[in-house]
Amino acid sequence: MKLQSKTILLLLAGSIYVMACQGKKSDSQDTAAAPAEPAAAAPASNAEGKKIFETYCVLCHGVDGKLGLNGSKDLSISVLPIEEKIIQVTNGKNLMTPFKDILTEDEIKAVVAYTEELKVK
After folding, report:
1. Closest Cα to residue 19, out of 59, 47, 73, 79?
2. How many CB atoms sit inside 10 A of residue 99's CB?
């Protein structure tokens, strides 16, 4: 019974964390004084992919991609093609949050590229 309560608390804490992060992202995008983006923005860097992963993904996947909380997959052994990873991050799956309204397409590609670095070689 205690394990079930802890699981529920972890799920609740994770949901609150994701909702809080969503609010921060949309608030910063809505500011009128935000600088204009270049017409052809370059894709986000791997450093940015790591930063995004640490912000949104470590709660369930862990720093090394192996945590497996809430049914998340072990990213260090994932064989999912990059294109499918992009679709999964964009649209979510099972308990995974869909990030299409949270991250830009370039940010999603950057975090997926970063997850490739977590693979066991």
Report:
1. 59
2. 22
Domains of the chain, residue spans: 44-117
- Whether the CB-CB separation of 15 and 59 falls below 8 Å is answered with no
**How many CA atoms lie within 13 Å of 49's alpha carbon, on the beta-carbon side?**
19
Cα of first residue to Cα of last residue in the chain, in angstroms, is 40
Q: What are phi and psi of 93, to 5 degrees?
A: -165, 135
Phi-psi label, residue 104: left if phi above 0, alpha if psi -120 to 50, beta otherwise: beta
Confirm whether pTM is higher than 0.70: no
Q: Which fold has domain 44-117?
A: Cytochrome Bc1 Complex; Chain D, domain 2 (1.10.760)
List, for residues 53-105, the tens digit of each pLDDT value.
999 999 999 999 999 999 999 999 999 999 999 999 999 999 999 999 999 99
DSSP annotation of 69:
G
Distance CA 12, CA 65 (A): 21
